[in-house]
Q: What sequence folds into this?
């Protein structure tokens, strides 16, 4: 099968077109070569004009290639962004944010293990319902909603393992 590129007007085999499920035939209107040429030209033009390479807004700091909102939305971690700027996220900062979020949520649950009273960093959130009943657990706002509903319990790592290893033993004291 073949398709005609709407930019260069040549007939090319289907594998020369990127997939696009929004198009009727499941392929982009432009061939990969035309799209690549266009992207490079657009990127160079936007960069020369001092504009964001994603949305086209005028940049305040012309040494950057993304405006603050695009950088925040993408998390500054696209392969192109890392390759062109050499940007690397600081793992210490990222880890500190996770720890602070975990500490904040743990405070809502008393800040210690529900069974043994351990206070420390080795605390985990145990979900009392199935995932399909309570929604996603990945986002902190959704986790906060589950805490408010009483569907989450704070346990130390050892008690959490004991719970999952011998559920019947725990079941008796858990719901008394």
A:
């Amino acid at each position: 099968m073949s398709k005609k590129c709407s930019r260069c007007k040549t007939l090319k085999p289907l594998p020369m077109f990127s997939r696009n499920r929004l198009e009727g035939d499941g392929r982009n209107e432009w061939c990969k070569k035309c799209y690549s040429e266009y992207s490079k030209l657009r990127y160079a033009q936007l960069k020369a004009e001092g504009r964001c390479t994603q949305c086209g807004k005028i940049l305040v700091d012309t040494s950057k290639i993304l405006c603050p909102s695009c950088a925040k939305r993408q998390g500054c971690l696209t392969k192109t962004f890392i390759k062109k700027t050499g940007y690397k996220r600081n793992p210490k900062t990222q880890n500190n944010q996770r720890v602070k979020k975990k500490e904040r949520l743990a405070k809502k649950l008393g800040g210690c293990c529900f069974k043994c009273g351990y206070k420390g960093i080795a605390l985990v959130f145990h979900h009392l319902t199935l995932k399909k009943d309570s929604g996603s657990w990945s986002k902190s706002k959704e986790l906060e909603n589950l805490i408010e509903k009483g569907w989450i319990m704070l346990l130390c790592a050892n008690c959490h393992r004991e719970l999952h290893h011998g559920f019947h033993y725990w079941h008796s004291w858990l719901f008394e």
Observations:
- Confidence is low (pLDDT under 50) at residues 133-137.
- The CA atoms of residues 128 and 175 lie 11 Å apart.
- Strands lie at 2-4, 11-13, 123-127, 152-156.
